């Protein structure tokens, strides 16, 4: 087993090697922005999908809506820039909301993001797999299996550790950005040189019958799903090389700029070329085909799009474990999420994320597209909460220049809040599960925290209840016969407490009882033997009753009762089924139901 | 949990109540012959299925073939009658072959029968379910589920105990016998009164083109599948009321007589009425329809046939556990098969049989008909071996009248051997798996026996190697912090061995190490603390190494090393995931890999 682990995730690293695992800006941009950048592949299309319901003439609205999304993007980037400086240890929406708005808003933000990262992985990998199976239709039947293999691969890469996965993952991201830059550049040049007829699209301001504010809001909400992922950097600040906040801010701004250029480029090209959304071919694919024809560049764009969609999942892998650490440090989720694995990553978070994404992919059989609105609303709720938290912070602390800061965060909060509400108003049928799982998660967080608190109170040495002293030991030794195992256990018992040993034998029949008593008398006349005739052939019931009796007497004189249980350790695992191993049942039963100490004396079979 | 068990299988019984569980002849006939009697429902049909391949004119051969089967039946009944008296403690083919032919023939017989009983259950229940779903075609889609429910019901009945299941199970068997008697009686009367034209069938001795000895042998082998189940009584003698051998013999003869009458009646009626086998309607069903029309008696026969087919499974449940006990007593299969359950049945055998039959039904999706030849050959191999064993016994011991006995068993052995060989020659495609699983099972039996033998040698107190004395104890206490749990465990350690306690702390970082040493020094200055800095964040590796060091020193002075491991016992099961519970991992690892004694100190959380 252990060599498999080595091969997959590499040699263990020392805690002191942690610094070497930190990443620079170029790699960070690749790792943390693949989610945000990849959404360019579907964001503009989401807008057109809403507008097409009233007709192609309405497509010009994508330009003002696109501008709206850019405004929202700017507000978010500026807001998150302020968050990074204010909270250089990361934690993003959870920490910000918790500190400024209180525990429950923090938990809502944290729970929302935890689920969201799982959705990110499932949705992105499924979408990437769809892109591949569209190219190779013969693979279509295996798409669930392919998606799961991708999740496993990404999980392993992340268990190997951050820098190594970053090296592998940065190429596709930069290739995707380069591909889209070429597409947009060539496209704009062709438009400028008049290759495309202006009749392909309705001009801006054309009146459209049937357009409504509701529809435009819905299109805007859909378009803003392109902004999911912009919060990832603020969660991952501790992964940056020092000075972390400066590096994180620069990465954030670079990402925002790239996202803005790519998003507006695609929206603009789609408008100019009059692209209409189709079921089988994506908008980006149509644009690329119009501009390049079905040549090398077309397939290059399709390929890098598929890759970046799959890698977008990696953003979830960077952010989820860090958020989980923050929640676990506050004792809202199990402590195990704070353990660093062999390669210094928070392995439990990584594995948990992988398993749950696979479950989601299996549950939806790879058809996770209709999870996109759920996923988007799960992002905008924490956006809203964290921006609101920042507003409170500025109002409370009033540092120099707080008015500008307040204005930025207020704008961010207001727009995020509106987008969230728009999702509820315009897509309730798809986002309602949020209303169930968010309260559910907060309740679970609360129960876990309460448990840890009560346990902590009980363990604290300063608490009033003193541990009772132990004056001596009574040793109970259940025996099944007269064998080497019993002899060995008896020797051990004698070394502990020579005068307080009770051997217990549980016969099923009277003759057996008498015969054993006689044999014992000859073999160990000095050790007291108690036989408990068990007509119902149960060993545990009479033994437990006897232990209760002994314990009652022992506790009067502050004696501790220890039960010695011999256990066979066969040389091969399968041999275990050849031995009744009732010792294991007895041990578990007594441990759970009686207040006794259980000593396991292993008896190793040599052959 | 325990009340569910009570409800399903009843209150536990005392060992002394075993006598009351023994069964009388009437019930025994019902329980132990349902397998044999039910095969009347398909045995004659199997003959016709072979003959129909050369044409309806060949059907008259079913009469001489039927006579052949009756001769075989007589030989088997007489042979088994002798076995019952010679081996009144049961065990049938396994015991007889083992004692007279040696270990390996015995194991071949035993292994063959073990598998066969599993096949009995799967095949019979599937066939019975088919009969039901033929009557109610809307249930057809659920036939696998229905079959599994029947297996579970029969398993529960058998776990409840023998007499109670016998009471429930005897009615359908007697109803089936009564129904067939009525059918045969009315049929013979109608033939005698000339209701059916003699042209319906070719007369005996008609020449048939294409008939061959091979075909006739094949038909005979197929027909002898009706004799599966006759060995059941000889395996189950210990279940009979005293005098068991007499009662068993009378039951055996009663069963043989019934089987002979029913089998020859059906063969005769099928011949007289000229019934030809059809895919959808069974031969018995065709006969019943001819004689009664589709009235009450027709459905009565169909219904009791379905019931007895399902109950035939019960024969497997009576015989399998007893055979398993015999094998387990000889240490060829795990000892657990000798444990009596709450209701004094050998529950492990019953449960094992139920599980494996369900697996077979699932694996073949309820289509177990083509397992019939495999099942038949699996019966005739032990038949042959046990009869051969009896031959050897008579030749060796030569009691009074041994020549007649020898002749009877020699005839039985010869016919059984011929039938077995015929299966291999004429149906090799269906029976070849026997050649794989029989050697496989014998090999497993051999390995298990060898393991028990070596273990027994090691445990025997008379063996040369003396248990080394224990001069004193070194107690190692891994600590994770300064808490009540540690305090409590430390108190216990002090009560065992006040001067040889080593507390071990495994810090991941240098600062942590220093801080803990300081705290410990203040808290427990008298207890030696060892800190094991673990840069790779593993607890088990440094701890194991340290234990090795301590153990090396301790063993020089015959000291025993005990590791005390505190374990949280939370009040609710799910709380376990909130605690790292590394203690459980450490315990298991040390127990399996180091020669130390592990003491678990439970710390029960009160809230």
From TrEMBL, chains A, B:
How is it placed in the membrane, per its record? Answer: Multi-pass membrane protein
Q: Where is the secretion signal located? A: none
Q: Name one GO molecular function term.
A: transmembrane transporter activity
For this record, the Gene Ontology CC terms, alphabetical, are: membrane
Presence of the UniProt keyword Transmembrane in the record: yes
Name the residues that span the membrane. Answer: 47-78, 107-127, 139-159, 171-191, 211-230, 251-271, 296-323, 344-364, 370-390, 402-425, 431-448
**Locations listed in the record:** Membrane
Query: Do you know which InterPro entries this protein is assigned to?
Result: AA/rel_permease1, APC_K+_Transporter
> Which UniProt keywords are given for this protein, alphabetically ordered?
Membrane, Transmembrane, Transmembrane helix
User: Key word Transmembrane helix present in the record?
Assistant: yes
Q: What is this protein called?
A: APC family permease
List the taxonomic lineage: Bacteria, Bacillati, Bacillota, Bacilli, Bacillales
